[in-house]
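Lay summary. Proteins are chains of building blocks that fold into shapes, and those shapes determine what they do. In this project we predict the shape from the chain. Here is one chain we studied, written as its sequence of building blocks.
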Amino acid sequence: MSPSIARRVLNLKPSVTVAFMNRAKVMQRQGLDVLSFAAGEPDFDTPDIVKDAAIRALKAGQTKYMPTLGDPDSRAAIAEKFTRENGIPNCTSEHVAIGAGGKHQLFVALHCLLDEPRPGEAPPEVILPVPAWVSYAPIAELAGGRVVEVPTGPANGFLATPEQVRAAITPRSRVLILNSPSNPCGTMYAPDHLRAIARVVHEAAATAPDLVVISDEIYEKIAYGGIPHFSIGSVPEIAERVITLNGLSKAYAMTGWRVGYTGTSGEFGKRFIQAMSTLQGQISTNNTSFTYPAIPVALKECGADVERMREAFARRAELINRLLGAIPKLKTAKATGAFYAFPDVSAYFGTVSPKGKPINSALEMSEALLDEALVAFVPGEDFGGCGKNHLRISFACSEHQIEQGMDRFAAFLKRL
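And here is the predicted shape, written in a compact code that computers can read:
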């Protein structure tokens, strides 16, 4: 009899995004002309000035252990960024943690907030507007939480209303996760909308005294729909109840660098960051040491590079919005932030692919598209809510690839 694997891992859903991305890469290595729209990864290279900072550090011998949450200069640069750009009050270097990517920071943060319930006790609740990024729910559940879904849809831009948030709050509510701009939906909350949600959180303090907002703002600089980015952590009444997640992966084309960071405010914020330090010290300790000097350089000296990439994403968004809008029976919400489109394809369920495969779900459509049209999208089932009717299309690729891919997609749907 062989040893067993822990149930918490056996029951953990693998990332469907990574699965389709990897399948596309395998097919490409086999020589197939696969057009992949699966990865949430900019096709741009990291700015040279950022690379040079890391190279200098490496050559200077910065190859040893570093402080768990990052070196003082990097933490200070991030705190200054949070204060200046995001308006987060009372944010100092003691309110900042640096970890191995945004997903790692989310993992550590949720494990610092959620406890496994005691016998006979209900689990802590995590309020999650859905569809949502595929990793929020599994990590929350792994940490001992119970996910309470707040349904949204394309008709309202996939935005949870303040009334929905209020209705979801109970005495067991521990975390509200917000993501703007959104992965997978490609939409974002307007400032007044977030202020209204902040009022709900503030008013709920008596009912849910432990409620904390995790605001994932990793796509904050990739906005082009006329909606300014707004950090809910800047609202004074709830600033100490907000944990802001961010990183360098998306806006700075640094996905492989694995630099994620967390910002907080006030006395609770300091205590929370210390808790992250304790847990991170037992997981990964510090990031790769020679990446730290690149952080202040990216935050302070790469504004022109970030804007150049944002403008490219804006052009791509306009293109994909137009091309998807011309395909019959698709329902879409206009992409206004991040680099995702999230069309509803359920009008095509109940059909059969050109090679005879039944199409009754987003997963079946994605598999048929990849096998028969050599186009890799991500099926929406694992994003929750109405995601089961949707496909996620990452347009972090060239306009030529977008045109080719949407042509193949339209032709495939026409032949169903």
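What the prediction tells us: The mean pLDDT is 96.
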